[in-house]
Amino acid sequence: MRKHWWPIAGIVWIVSGLAAVGAELWSGVRSSAPYSFAEQAISDLGWVGCGASDAYPDGPVEICSPEHTVLNVAWIVTGLAFAAAALALRRVLPVGKRGGIGAWLLVAGGLGQAGAGLWPSDVDLTLHTIIAMIGFLAQSVALILIGSGWLRSRAALGRTTLIAGIVTIFGLLLLMAPTAWSLPFGILERAAAWPFLLWLVLAGAAAMRASRAPDARGARGGSPAPRAAGR
Asked: What is the pLDDT of residues 98-114, one digit of tens each?
């Protein structure tokens, strides 16, 4: 997409990351039932109704989130928005297969986030879980591919992106650990979700800077422009 769209797409990434985290924090603080950010799932805040969840090893947990609409709508809007922006910013991502696959995985991650908002866990737990897990996996692999592709051309951002991807995958794997381990589910899920959302802010800022660069190829980490003949 043309370079003049990059600042807009970059702003979309920044706003999407901040809005998703902000909506979650707001919904958690406004929960009518006691809510633990460390122990409970993010999706508890998207419950449309109120009731007890039997998903926790220590017994039923009461859930009631009056601001569920805020969270679910935020997931839908931000997921679709950063997926569309990923296509607009394809030329900002690394060249080659890693950048291309990474861009489409970002789209898949955005659709997964939107799908999780469309189907809250108390409406369809199985569908919500499948969509959310696919979204998490797509986002984490996208970060690793994009980060490795940036290591030479944008070393600091590449390393940060790689670390975010590794933390995300580590959190995702621990989410599937046996319940007997009694790991803090809320912390692990946020380890799988938040690094990506915060990365959107950094990558969005990088895209805005790249839009001001004189050579678009330099922003992509690709080859420099060809020299004039005879030089």
From this structure: 888 999 999 999 999 99
Report domain extents, the chain: 3-216
Residue type, 11: I
DSSP three-state, residue 58: coil
Angle, vertex CA 112, rays to CA 92 and CA 110, nearest 5: 25
* 3-state SS track over 6-37: HHHHHHHHHHHHHHHHHHHHHHHHCCCCCCCC
Angle at 23 (CA atoms; ends 99, 67), nearest 5 degrees: 140
pLDDT tens per residue, range 47-88: 999 999 988 888 899 999 999 999 999 999 999 999 998 888
Amino acid at 105: L
Cα distance between residue 210 and residue 201, in whole Å: 14
